[in-house]
Amino acid sequence: MQWEVVIGLETHVQLSTQSKIFSGAPCHFGDAPNVHACYVDLALPGALPVLNHGAVERAIRFGLAIGAKVANHSVFDRKNYFYPDLPKGYQISQFELPIVLGGQLTFPVEPKTGEPYMKTINLTRAHLEEDAGKSVHGIVSGHSGIDLNRAGTPLLEIVTEPELRSAEEAVGYARALHALVVWLGISKGNMQEGNFRCDANVSVRPKGETKFGTRCEIKNLNSFRFLEEAINYEVQRQIEVIEDGGKIVQATRLYDPDKGETRQMRTKEDSMDYRYFPDPDLPPIHISDAWIEKIKAEQPELREVKQARYQEEYGLPAYDAGILTESRHLAGLFEETAAIYGNAKKTANWFMGEVLRLTKDKAMDPEQVSFSPKHLADLLVLSLIHI
Ligand code: ADP
Ligand code: MG
Question: Does residue 85's CB lie within 6 angstroms of at least one atom of ligand 1?
Fold first, then answer.
């Protein structure tokens, strides 16, 4: 029997605001437990949430970049469940009326066998929500601790339609989405710090079948490699269960990277179980067309557009245009230098040679590279004289 794989991803992107989504406590990673948890994050009685304007702006920026509908009216809901790292007993999220609807993303896929190709998929929605805290094990022996520094960190959850057909396509999508949110400046995208986490919904069906199979959801995959490994393992597992005459039970599973396998965490709850209802502490979000237009006008030139322009305007090969636009910040320095110096091709050679080599050698984050384009342009003039 030939099987077809069906995958939909839900990605939690941490937004790059200074403070939390509903409180003034800083979003800061790596400090002593609970130093960034204020009365709102601790859910003290009477504490009220106040929405962070910057989180809404970043969600709008994302919606515009993927050609989605930005809702003029959206609502926060309470998602009720019990867990030690969730002191309120509910997470503030969006359910029926999310801030971003629809949209598309196009990305390159590099399959294990066969030629690379481009794929476009539809996004279902993106909604704002708060992150939970963290249980900490092993600090006090025999006990678990709770660290609420992360509680209330702003997240944008981005949901795709079930249109991905392989682990490679899922990875291609996730990489492109990651690059986009970093490019837009709405997330730092630091994967080690959990800024970008994917839940993979996976099912299989006989080739040619139009109905979807029962899916399992693998939670919290925080690297592209784990995403790929977890999906491939899960696909194999499901096929074996069905071919052995068994049935897939809808469930939430976790991936264990040490063992290279997924295991069941809980049978899947339905949205009914969360008893969603609008949060009475937060007014609906009203977004005026004027605000959307203002953000649209400030939107950075997207990478694909920049690449095309470098080829057209500067006469650079597609390869060079690709390399030069790996970081929006470095692309900006390149453009300024080329404008002062006047020869884009020579500037491009210096960037691809010296600037990128030094960035790599010093293991610098491209976003941190800093020099004056005027100085580099002067240097290029001198190098011309001496050659
Ligand atoms: P929930 O919010 O309960 O997890 P949704 O229906 O909103 O459920 O779907 C969540 C994700 O699962 C979406 O990305 C969707 O594309 C994907 N999905 C839905 N059905 C399937 C399926 N049969 N196989 C694979 N993915 C699926
Ligand atoms: Mg889900």
Answer: no
The tokens describing 82, both together, are 């019990």
Q: Which residues contact 45 (CB under 8 A, 6 or more apart)?
A: none
Q: Which atom of ligand 1 is nearest to the CA of 159?
A: 14
Residues 6 or more apart from 198 whose CB is under 8 A from it?
Answer: 9, 10, 11, 12, 170, 174, 220, 221, 222, 227
Distance (Å, whole) CA 99 – CA 17: 17
44, 134, 148, 309 from 31: Cα distances, Å: 22, 13, 11, 43
pTM for this predicted structure: 0.93
Strand 73-74 with 251-256, pairing = unpaired
pLDDT in tens, 6-41: 999 999 999 999 999 999 999 998 899 999 999 999
* Number of alpha carbons in the 13 Å side-chain half-sphere of residue 334: 31
- The atom number, within ligand 1, closest to the CA of 203 reads 24
